[in-house]
Amino acid sequence: MLRSLVQEFKKLAQKDNTMGCASSKSGKPSKQTAQQQQRTRAATGIVSLRDHKLKALPDSLQQDYRARVIDAANNQLAALPPWLGGFAASLNRLVLSHNQLTFLPPELGQLTQLKTLLLDHNRVRSLSGAALSLPKLELLDVSHNQLETIPPAVEQLTALRQLRAQNNSLGVVASELGHCAALEELDVSSNSLVALPSELGALQRLQTLSASGNDIATVPPELLRGCLALQTLSLHDCPITFVELEATEGYEEFEQRRRTKFTKVIASNAMLPTGGMKKV
Questions:
Q1: I need a surface site. Which of 55, 120, 153, 209 has the fewest CB within 10 A?
Q2: How many CA atoms lie within 13 A of 5 on its CB side?
C-alpha cells in the first residue's frame, strides 16, 4: 500500500514538472507579462524602465508615443536614440538620472511638451541647444555632471522655475540666465565659479540661490537689490566673509525684506490652532 502511494506521488510530480517545462518553453507567461506591461503603459501613460541595466532604450518603446512619463534612471545608457523626438506631442517628464550619457541629441529639442528633465549623475560635458530650446521646461536637473558652463542659450527656457547645476565644473554662468524671469530656485554650489553675473538681479521671482563651495569673493549689488523674492542666499565655503557680504551695497535692503517675510510667516503660523488648519 505504501509503495503504491509513493509510486503515484512520483507520477504526479513528473506530470507537474512536464507541464511546467511545456509552459516555460511555450513562452506564454513571459508574453502575458509583456502584454500586461503594455496595457499598464497605455492606461497610465507611464513607462518605467528604472533599474533594468539597459545600455540603450529599447526600440519597442516607439510603440508608446503617447507616453507622458519615461523613467529610465539607474541604467547604463550612453546615448539617446533619434526616435526620442517622436514623443513631442505627449511627453512631459523624462528621467535619465544615474546613467552614462555624455551628450544630448538634437532630437531632444523636439519634446516641446516637456516640463521636467532630470539628467543628474551622468557625464554630460555641455548643454546643447536642444536641451535649452524647450519652451515649457520648468525643472532642469543637470547636477553631478561635467559641465564647464551654462551657455547663453539658457535664456530660451522662459518657463524654467528650477535649475539644479551643482557638483559640476562650472567656471561661468551666462549672464543670459537673468532673462529666465520665472526662475525661483538656482543651485550652482560645488563648482569653480569666481563670480555671479550681475544680470541675476533681474530675477524678481528667485527665492533660493545656492552657491556654496565656489571661489566667489564678491556678490553683485544688483543681485541683492533686484531679487525681491530672495529668501535664501547660501555662500558657505566661499572666500567672501559675512562681514564683506554685510558691507555689500544692497545687503541691508535684502536683509530687511527677508526679515519682514520671515516675521509674516511667524505671525501667520501663530494664528493657527495647535492642530493646524481644519478642513471645513
A1: 55
A2: 2
* 3-class DSSP assignment, residue 6: helix
Q: What are phi and psi of 215, to 5 degrees?
A: -110, 30
User: Which string of b and e fits 130-161 if b means at least 16 CB within 10 Å?
Assistant: bbbbbeebbbbbbbbbebeebbebbbbbeebb
Helices (H), the chain: 2-26, 28-44, 221-226, 242-246, 251-270
The packing angle between helices 28-44 and 2-26, to 10°, is 50
| DSSP type of residue 241 | -
8 A C-beta contact, residue 180 and residue 204: no
Q: Is the dihedral of CA 188, 131, 103, 197 positive or negative?
A: negative
Neighbours of 31 (CB within 10 A): 10
Phi, psi (rounded to 5 degrees) for 29: -60, -45
Q: Which amino acid, 78?
A: A
